[in-house]
Structures are given as structure tokens and as C-alpha cells.
Amino acid sequence: MSSSTTDPIYDVREVPGKGKGLVATRKITKGTRILSEEPIVRVPEKTLGNQSLLASIRRQVDALSPDQRSAFLSLHNIYMDDAALKYLGIIRTNALPFGDDVMEAGIFLDACRINHACDNNAQKSWNENIKRHTVHALRDIEEGEEITIYYLGVLNSREARQEALQRKFAFTCSCRLCSLPPDQSQENDRRLNEILKLDGLIGRNGLMGIVSSPLQILRYVDQQVCLYNEQGPDDVGLPRAFLDAAQIAIANGDLARARIFAERAVLGWTVLEGDDSSKVLQYRALTQDPSKHALYGTTMKWKTAVDDIPLGLDSKDLDNWLWKREKPNRPGQPADFRNRATFPGFGDLPHEHYIDPLFYASSDELARPRRHWLFLAEIVDFNRFPRLQMTVTDVDGMTVPLFFYTEGRGSEWEPSLVQKGYTVAILYAEFHAFAFSEPGIRLEEPTNIKVPLQF
């Protein structure tokens, strides 16, 4: 997948409106390593100001060959007003980091020529194993097509991208994504914002979340993958999402699903970074034995063996099995109380302070339920002062406080209707964090609860 070639596959050329850039001299297939380059200047990324650093930069530039120095000085510099710090200005404009979490960056004569596009066709990365900066084709790149990378960290809304690019690099992007008609641009922004929102929900409670509410977190990842695929099948966020899904499966003892998710993550990272990258080498081992992961055995709720993958399924049915998707009821079909999407436990409820995209559709700051859900629980205790309060147990055996904030503080219900052992059903229930109690449910709309629920 990460093939490379000694034949020249790109030229450094003038690109209209952009200065110099890299242009494909022949068709470059998806996954091809376009370049692999050592830095000619190295700098600590976060300390671009002290005198010792400036002296170090000058020494490195002075040690370059005449051709290298000429190429370095011809790189774009958005800080031209400070002639005394010209070298530093070039580095601040062009330096590429050595990885995601390191404090060092460098100048690469060809890689630093690659221009930006929000719908980039190539991916940059630092390969720690070979100590080189690499660029790989995210998709097939046609002969004569400009090679582009994404300069920012997260693919955000158009307005946020334009503001960041102007602030950091002093240009306005006019790529295909930034030039969409207003209605398409708004839809794209909505999708990107939903991906970011899901990212927060997936990681919000860390390990506790994937242990206490694994199905809900898996559904978040499933929806995120669907949104990434709507963006395009080569989205760079997909491998990370598949790894999240693999870790959810591993933490709950599901080796079969973990293996498939890990395979998909490795396949994606091979395209992005090459088969010799640290991520590929690290996570390829999970495709053979996911039980080696540190999270394995945290719980065994979903216990499977690594080969417990159903046979004879088409791709759609395999995906439904993989993501634990529940089949929707047909019209007139009795409700299945085992369906956790419709009858969630407390740990699977949406949080009242988040517009959870699994439960709500939002537009113009308004959130509306996108479907129905019903929280069922058994009353194990109750009292009526200063308002009706119940202690209930949900389908997972979790004990939850339920406080009545209706106009009558719960007096709307006759005492005979509130008894231990009775079942309550709450439509559109939400997780509420009380200041004076454990998290529970705050009921404000009396029409959303049925006490007792009779079958």
C-alpha cells in the first residue's frame, strides 16, 4: 500500500496564486509514498525567540550548501517586515513538526513547498523509525494535479479554518471545500461540527465510559465513522475512530470485533503513513492477538474469541454485526425491550448539557429528539418531602435518584400509584448532574412519565 519509487513523480513548479508547489508528473496511486525527506534545519518548535536559538539557526543555515541555502532563502516568509530575523521568519512560516506530541520541528526543502488545501490529497507525517518526514497520497492523484496537504490540526468549520489560516499563515484558502455553495458549505460544517461533538462524547468519561456504557460509546464511534465516510472514504480521521472502536471491544473482552477494527485502523494508517510507521507497527500486533492490549479483561461483558466472526454475511450484515446495530422495528411490530437504543439504561442516556447526536437533531441552536427512547426502572424507595423523590433501579441494576420538578413537585400522582416494586417509564429521560446528590434524572414534564407502568 505504501509503495515508493525512485522515478521522479513530482516537480516543484509555480502554482497560480500560490507561489511554488509540488505537482504530480504522473499518476500517483493511493498510498504511494510521495517523498521521504530529512530536515536541513532543526529547531525546538515552542522556543522560537531566545538568542541561543537564533544563533543555532544561523549556524545551521550557514552550514548548508549554496544550493540548499538558496532554496531555504526562497521559501515563503510571512514575517518580511523583520529583516533582522529573516531566518526565523522563514522557519516560523514553514517548519513542520516531528510528530504530534513533540517540541521539535524542521525545514524540509520539498515537503515545505507543499501547499495547503482543506480537501488535501496527501498526508504529511514524521516517521520516527526512519527519522524522516514522509508524505503519502490519500487518494489517486492525477498527472498534472497539485499535491496538497492540510496545514491545521483539526478539520473544523469553514469560518474557523479561514480564520486560523489567515492568522497563522496569512492567506485565504480557496480550495474546493472552501468554495462550496452556501447551502453545501453549511451542510459540510454541520457534519464537521457533529464529528467534533462525537469526539468529545467518545472521550468524555475515558475508561469509565467504555466500561460502564460500552454500547453507547460504540454507537458514537459508529456514527462518527458514518460521518467521516460522508466526507469521503479516505478521511484521515477513520483510522483513529477504528482504533477507538477496537479499544472499546478489547476493554469488554470482545476479541473478534477488536481484531476487525484493528485491521481497519492499520489499513488506514498504512495509507496515511506507510507500513514502516510506528502506528502501523504498533497496532498490527493487535490484529493477531488483541488480548495483548493493556485494556483486555477490564470487563468480559462482550466476551468472544478472536475467530468468533460470523460466516456467510455480506458486507452490510457484517457491519451491522460489527457495530452491534439493532434492527429497527417494522410498523406494527411489538417493541423489543432488549433493544437498548429504544430502552436505554441510565448509563446510556443523553447528558442534559450536551446535544447528543444519537438522540437529538439540532438546527439553529434548537435540539429536537430524532427518535423516541424510554427509560424503564423499578421503584426501590421513595419519599415525598420536600418533593417527590424516587430511588429506582434500571435494566443494568444501577440505582438512580429520580427527582420530580413538576409544577406540583410530584403531587400530581396519587400515593397509591407510587409503590415499591412498581415500574416507571420516562420518555426522553436525560442524565442530570445534581449538586446535592448522585447523578440521576430530573423530571419536569409530567406527561413524560408513566407511574406505574402496566403491561
Automatic annotation (TrEMBL):
Signal peptide as annotated in the record: none
InterPro entries xref list: SET_dom, SET_dom_sf, SET_domain_protein
All residue ranges annotated as the SET domain in the record: 7-152
Top-level taxonomic group: Eukaryota
Family annotation (Pfam families): SET
Cross-referenced Gene3D superfamilies: SET domain
Protein name as annotated: SET domain-containing protein
Organism: Scytalidium lignicola (Hyphomycete)
